[in-house]
Amino acid sequence: LLEALRDGQRHEETHYVIIEALQAICKLKPEQRDLVVRALVGELSKMEIGRRKFYGHIVFALLKLEAKEALPLIETAYKRGLVEPDYCDYLENIQKTLGGEVVSDPEMDRFEGEMEEVAGIFYDFKYCDTTFPRDAVLRARQLRDVIIPSLIEEVRLSTAYARYDVPIMDSVNLFAVHLLAEFQAREALPYLLESLSITSDQAWELYSDCLYESVPAIMYRIIGNDVSFYTNYLHKRETPPILRDILAVALPFLVKSGALDRGSYLILLRKLFRLAIDESNDDFAKTVLDLLLECGDKNDVPLVREAHEKGVWDEEFIDLEGAIGELNKEGEQFEEAIIRRTRRKVDDTIEAMSEWASFQPETKNDSPYVPPPLSPTSKPLSPSFRGGSLLERVHEVGRNDPCPCNSGKKYKKCCGK
What we know:
Distance between the termini: 45 Å
């Protein structure tokens, strides 16, 4: 149990059960008490941010074990804002329980009041239903420094739920990552990287549609224009696939900011595409090819032909003729593509999230479905296809057309995946 307690890769809920089991063992075998207390103190002494609930459970266990020797460490952890009082008790009561000197501390009283406010904010995030919790976001801004560790903890816990395939039933983690981006909380970066180091299905469970719509912007907002950071992860074969994808999709933000000019951007994409070909990494190759085609440089035709011959992508993604056609446009749509890819703003959580469909009142729409306008490059529907009267009247959707399901995404990023 002690070995499992020290295992940082375990689900947080598992740690809570382990702590309770250790308390039960101490009741049955009092001689084990000192060993357990030392282990709990050892975990608390790590003083890691984003583990307020975990440390709250540890402090509660130390109280039950009457570990007076742990009081100085508990006081330090409280004063650093690393313990969630809701999971144990307020510091003054702990001092009384463990026989320490109770000293009135206005600063600690203020912090504990703020932590109550933080708990209220998370409650509003959890139960907002169809109404955007604007007031909760405004209160979070006022408590920026106090709430950041709790936001990080939410990212950690949600990632653990996704990793263990536990359904995520609310949007609290999405509020957390958007606020961390708004606050430009660089200390959250390791936890965001961890949240993208899971399988594709798990990442979709964690982030839903935000995975490719908002997360690249969130990562850029926190990482900034550190080009070497992106290239370091993108060039490594062992980088988790989803993380690699998201960092690649974030590259246009570097172009927009001026950290990368078009020439440097093209050189980087070519290197990444070559890596994807050599690794036979179809998914990453498609992501990079999508970016490469938007640059429109006919010098890339031989590289794209080679990739096609090696079967790096299938014809459902784009046929060779279509890809060469995009490259021969010589950058006509480059600026437009950069603008489109970087239009997602995450520097204001209210602006970024309040317009989501889930926060809009439901309206009954009795009007007939009208397919979105198609680009001139769309191909006619195959004569052999017969899918009903509606489909007989529409054309095959182009890869860059709006998806017919009305999701607001491009067809290639939605039903055409």
